[in-house]
Amino acid sequence: MPLQRSGRTVTWKDAATGDDAYELTANALADGSKREGSKGDMTRPGQAGKFADLFAVSVQVGNGSAPVAGVVTSFYWAPSKSSTAGDENPGGTTGSDAAWAIDEEALSELIFMGNFVHANQEGPFYGQLSNLAIPYAFGFPLVWNQSGQTLDMCEIYLTELIG
User: Fold this and answer.
1) CA of 56: how far to CAs of 32, 53, 101, 151, in Å?
2) E-assigned strands of the chain?
């Protein structure tokens, strides 16, 4: 049986509101800068301790000025056993919506979700990155802007997949 989207999507974006929405303030993220979103709870509503094994990862990204075609913005996942922002986070991350100032060696502690490849246009553009298997019910995304331009929009969507 092919995988299908279940309808539940967890979102990280600027000024997030509502259920399954978390903060990621990347709407003025300079080239070369990194940002982490706030820690999210991937537990299914009303099902304590249960979360989907697999999520489809998609993003919406825009630049204030057109980047050179083919440059990327990279996305990572920081899994955590703890629901508390500052506890049990990999790679020196905080679990809070904040600048991510760690070195590239710490990337090996994170899960790579994919690169968004930019066109030579401002956008915003929507892209499907990958399918993500998460080991724990808590975690958060990280963004590394390598587009050569400032991002003026960045949203990340994780949608449950079912078999």
Assistant:
1) 26, 11, 27, 23
2) 4-13, 21-23, 34-36, 40-41, 54-63, 72-80, 98-99, 111-117, 125-133, 138-146, 151-162
pLDDT at 41: 94
d(CA 57, CA 26) in angstroms, rounded, equals: 17
Of 13, 11, 10, 8, the C-alpha closest to 24 is: 13
Q: How confident is the model at residue 4 (pLDDT cuts 50, 70, 90)?
A: low
Between CA 48 and CA 55 the distance in angstroms is 18
Structure tokens belonging to residue 34:
């990194």
The domain total for the chain is: 1
- pLDDT tens for each residue of 32-60: 999 999 999 999 888 888 899 899 999 99
C-alpha to C-alpha distances, 2 to 5, 44, 48, 163, nearest whole angstrom: 10, 21, 27, 6
Domain that holds residue 137: 4-162
The reported pTM is 0.93
Tell me, rounded to whole angstroms, the distance of Cα 84 from its chain centroid. Answer: 18
Select from 163, 162, 2, 147 the least CA-distant residue to 65. 147
Read off the CATH number of the domain in which 85 is found.
2.60.120
